[in-house]
């Protein structure tokens, strides 16, 4: 800094210290414009709390992403069910070229090139959107005493979670918080494979074991790999002789969680919200029409969730005092996790790849949205 600059700065600091608020703002504006300082730093310099920066002034970087990129990311986020940016980045790596070539996004070539390299952190800043708060559900599980002592509590010795086929199952209530004596309401059976995250949903008219058992068999038929084990809670809809004998005959490992410990079924509990609740909400469904619509929706939803939405699995968790550090694997769709598994037959993989080739993401998402609107239109005003 030259003597002339030093003298000028001291005079400016004196003027700034004696000026009123309006005059200070004007002096600060001129000083920032002249020096290129950040406004906070310039204020500190004029107040004498910091020295003036020597050397070249660092100018702010020119923005690389604009309105077109932000709008495209908003469209992509809606298309992929508003998943987090790390998962969205993984989905874009696979689906963005197909979407661009089909013209579904309506973006320029320059925007497309930028979207190919945008980082998850930058995506978070560009999206900056409001995420609606969702209420919590209620538990209506009644413990089943029949055969409970014969169905073992799940331990690591019973399950081999490093291969597909071991699934957690649970029921999601659709009473809308209104328990009406003598009136049944729908439930959704959620069926989640622990290794791959592959998820199947089947709606049933009530939680009677005959309907739940039929739904389990239906979900099993949709799995792209053999069912090796199921783990449920202690509800009587699962802990019954019919399902117990079925598992014995089919050589399926059948285990249960501890009573009152929802974390024992953490994988399926997470899907109860991220798949079922996000798709159909917390309303009451109790009519045959609504039941049919739910199952029609789930028939599309299982394609959307399993083929297009990447999931992350926890690899390691360490605790240091009150701080918990979690390390996740790379986001991948359940479809890709099945294809990379050595425990799935080549015939099953080929069948999955053929099915994927026929899927059109934009059309699938549009049909899901239409079905959700139809379901909402069936609700009564008091629901």
Write structural notes for this entry.
The protein is 48% helix and 11% strand. With 383 residues, the protein is an alpha/beta fold. It folds into 3 domains: 3-46, no CATH class; 67-127, no CATH class; 148-377, Ribonuclease H-like superfamily/Ribonuclease H (Nucleotidyltransferase, domain 5). It has a 5-stranded mixed β-sheet, with helices on both faces. The chain has a two-stranded antiparallel ribbon with strand order 6-7. The termini are far apart.
Strand content is: 5-15%
Unreliable runs: 130-151, 153-157
Count of strand segments? 7
The CATH superfamily of the largest domain is known as Ribonuclease H-like superfamily/Ribonuclease H
Mean of residue pLDDT? 83
Placed side by side, the strands forming the largest sheet appear as: 3-2-1-4-5
Number of domains: 3
Order of helices and strands: HHHHHHHEEEHEHEHHEEHHH
Q: End-to-end distance, in Å?
A: 73 Å
CATH architecture classification name of the largest domain = 2-Layer Sandwich
Structural class call reads alpha/beta
Give a quick set of tags describing it:
single chain; 383 residues; alpha/beta; Nucleotidyltransferase, domain 5; 14 helices; elongated
Which SSEs are present, and which pair or pack?
Blueprint: H1 3-18, H2 21-35, H3 39-46, H4 67-79, H5 85-102, H6 109-117, H7 120-127, E1 166-173, E2 187-193, E3 199-204, H8 209-222, E4 229-232, H9 241-250, E5 253-256, H10 266-280, H11 288-308, E6 314-320, E7 323-328, H12 334-339, H13 346-358, H14 361-377
Parallel strand pairs: 1-4, 4-5
Antiparallel strand pairs: 1-2, 2-3, 6-7
Helix pairs in contact: 1-2, 2-3, 4-6, 5-7, 11-14
């Amino acid at each position: 800094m030259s003597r002339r600059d030093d003298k000028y700065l001291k005079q400016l600091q004196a003027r700034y210290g004696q000026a009123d608020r309006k005059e200070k703002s004007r002096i600060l504006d001129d000083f920032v414009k002249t020096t290129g300082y950040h406004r906070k730093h310039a204020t500190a310099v004029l107040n004498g709390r910091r020295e003036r920066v020597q050397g070249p002034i660092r100018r702010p970087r020119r923005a690389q992403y604009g309105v077109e990129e932000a709008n495209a990311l908003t469209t992509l986020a809606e298309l992929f069910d508003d998943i987090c940016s790390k998962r969205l980045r993984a989905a874009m790596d696979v689906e963005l070229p197909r979407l661009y070539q089909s013209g579904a996004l309506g973006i320029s070539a320059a925007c497309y090139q930028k979207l190919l390299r945008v980082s998850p952190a930058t995506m978070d800043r560009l999206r900056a959107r409001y995420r609606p708060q969702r209420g919590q559900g209620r538990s209506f599980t009644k413990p089943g005493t029949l055969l409970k002592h014969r169905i073992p509590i799940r331990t690591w010795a019973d399950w081999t979670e490093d291969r597909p086929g071991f699934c957690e199952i649970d029921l999601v209530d659709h009473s809308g918080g209104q328990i009406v004596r003598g009136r049944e309401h729908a439930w959704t059976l959620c069926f989640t494979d622990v290794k791959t995250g592959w998820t199947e949903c089947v709606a049933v008219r009530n939680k009677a074991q005959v309907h739940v058992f039929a739904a389990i068999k239906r979900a099993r038929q949709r799995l792209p790999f053999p069912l090796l084990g199921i783990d449920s809670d202690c509800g009587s809809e699962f802990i019954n002789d019919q399902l117990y004998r079925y598992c014995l005959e089919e050589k399926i490992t059948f285990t249960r969680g501890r009573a009152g410990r929802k974390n024992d079924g953490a994988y399926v509990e997470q899907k109860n919200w991220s798949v079922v609740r996000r798709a159909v909400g917390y309303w009451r469904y109790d009519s045959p029409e609504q039941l049919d619509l739910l199952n029609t929706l789930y028939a599309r939803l299982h394609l959307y969730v399993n083929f297009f939405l990447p999931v992350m699995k926890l690899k390691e968790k360490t605790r240091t005092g009150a701080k918990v550090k979690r390390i996740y694997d790379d986001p991948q769709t359940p479809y890709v996790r099945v294809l990379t598994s050595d425990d799935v037959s080549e015939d099953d993989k080929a069948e999955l790849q053929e099915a994927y080739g026929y899927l059109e993401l934009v059309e699938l998402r549009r049909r899901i949205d239409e079905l959700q609107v139809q379901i909402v239109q069936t609700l009564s005003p008091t629901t």
